Amino acid sequence: MSQEQAAAKSGSPGAADASSDAEEPIEDKPMSFWEHLDELRKRLVRSILVFFAACIVGWEVREKLLHFLTVPFVQAWREQNLPGNPSLHFGAPAAAFVAYFKLSMIGGAALASPFIFYQLWAFVAPGLYAREKRYVIPFVLFSTLLFVGGGLFGWRAAFPISFGYFLSMAGTVEGGGVTITPTVMMGDYLDFVAQLLLGFGIIFEIPLIVLFLSIAGVINYLQLIMFGRWFVFAAFILAAILTPPDITSQLVMAVPMCLLYVVSIGLAYVFGKPPTDAQRAAYKKRKEKEVSQG
Asked: Fewest CB atoms within 10 A around its CB: which of 38, 92, 145, 292?
């Protein structure tokens, strides 16, 4: 029997210390600036390769993807009682190929998102504490679900409103004589769809980003509360940029952003690091000032 086994059997302090040392995670040594650049290059190359492989899969199912993404457009066309069948057009011999390539990239981004999020985590992991590195699986899982779920929410909620608003402009102009007929180009349609899908996918990542920043101690719930009014302003500005000019479409994006921000404050309060005494005092002073001015 070895000394380690004997010590473990006798329950000596040396055995407990050895066992504790074995269970302690080994901290990574600090990386230099050039090592960080090399690590970034590796992560980017891997993400790009997997993304292109996912695009090949997306290309194989491009017609199914197109059918899925055009469902809100077809419904809006019929709800507006437009003549003829809903249709997309292309104006150059290669335009349809380019449009399908864009579509395969949309599908590839959704398919490769778990791997890309893992590479993002692996890049920032060396700068985290050992206890924070354990969150890799929840981070990859929830970031993927939120990104894809945000896109599905946009497809289900924002797309019908947007297409209904745009197609409502078709028809005969008051007074007669001129008829406005929609001729939707395939490439333009997919560009618009990709913009909205990406926008909703990113804004649905807000709770997860805030959660990990609060766990790392970068922000806390008091700072989020104080920044709340500015976030609401920024949410409506972003929604005005990404959505059609009608107020309904803007509300469909801005309101979920604000609700997600409220959820983020709750997550930061429950799981994040508590604010310091100085931050509490500053928050209390600001609230007293607002009350006195109000």
From this structure: 292
Identify the CA nearest to 73 among candidates 164, 185, 151, 194: 164
Give the confidence band of 23 by pLDDT, cuts at 50, 70, 90.
Answer: very low
- Cβ(250)–Cβ(236) below 8 Å: yes
What percentage of residues in the chain have a pLDDT greater than 70? 87
Nearest to 256 by CA among 152, 120, 168, 160: 152
Counting every residue, how long is the chain? 294
Q: Using one digit for the tens of pLDDT, what is the confidence trace for 40-50? A: 899 999 999 99
CA dihedral 63, 67, 69, 75 (to 10 degrees): 160
Q: Where are the alpha helices (DSSP H) in 91-158?
A: 95-124, 130-133, 136-153
Please state, in angstroms and rounded to a whole number, the distance separating the CA atoms of residues 216 and 219: 8
d(CA 149, CA 137): 18
Q: What angle (nearest 5°) sits at the alpha carbon of residue 154, between those of residues 199 and 159?
A: 115
CA pair distance 59, 74, nearest whole angstrom:
22
Query: What's the rounded Cα separation, in Å, for the pair 47 and 126?
Result: 18
Q: Which residues pair with 180 in a beta bridge?
A: 171
The β-bridge partners of 172 are 179
Three-state SS at 273: coil
150 touches 200 (CB < 8 A)? yes
Residues 6+ apart with CB under 8 A from 258: 231, 232, 235
Average pLDDT, the chain: 84
Confidence bin at 169 (pLDDT 50/70/90):
confident
Judge contact between 257 and 146, C-beta under 8 A: no
Sign, CA dihedral 134-140-143-145, equals negative
